[in-house]
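Continuing the series of single-chain predictions for the mutant panel. This is the parent chain; the variants come on the following pages.
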Amino acid sequence: MLAQAAASFNEGFDAGYDQAMMRSQQSVPETAKINPGAAEEYMKGLYDGGERIVDSILPELEILPEISVQQIIEAGMMQMSSQYYRLLSAAEVAGKLKEALDSCSPLSVVRLGDGELLTLAQEMVLNEEEVQKEGHFLSYAGVSLPDLKARDMLAASVKNADIIGIPKMRMANFQPLGFSVFRAHGIDYRKLQLTLSTVNYAMHLEGLLDGILAGRQVLVVGNAAPGLSRVLSDRGINVTGTVAPVEGMQDLSRTMDKIRECQFDIALVGAGIPAVIITERIASELGKVAVDFGHLADSLARGEATL
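Parent structure:
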């Protein structure tokens, strides 16, 4: 049951994350177009998040006629450009994966979403009540709150991972929480190789996965491993093993023991929050290449996405 719940969570989280990203780019949400009350609340939120801030900054007798909030933000962004922090692109991450495979060097690519960040935030950024409220879904992702041991194991793996995906969205439990968590755990992000937390999808959409996996021995880890292994095999990818299911944080030791029994060059890991730790340990303990593959494994296994 836990494995099924975890798989369901992975699907729901990733699908919801993608939808939220798309909705954040829309001018007016669909619900606001249909529901007048929702439209009013949307417009109030839009004012509070933009025009109200401008109003509060402008001197009492000064106005900015015919200048939109977007224009103001764009001008401010230009002034802040020296503080931009560039993330690795999907192509750059794919290139590093291929280099590591060619040289038989270890490399881990992990991804942090709100589940991982809330786990890391326990009693360091957020108190137990706040984490329980915001992270009500965490039990389905492999973490039963409170779990400070999971927090510390996750932090250790983040510190030791080679490439870390972080959220683009500046919503409270995504990118802002990420940098608060880094600071609380003494992690200097300037010393990390950062990419987007959706880099797995980006590599797929940009057609980079075939070039990474072709000619390699591939291990698939997680609840969707059997289905994904069939898809990869049908594509001509040499799948040399599967490890499934992964029953949350308490299953890490058994999962790693099973992985040690396998012969592979690269592992694709889709196992909720434990995927970060498994991916990092495959690289640091076994000297292999591993990617936190997320819900993309489910999408490929069900035929919703194709290589």
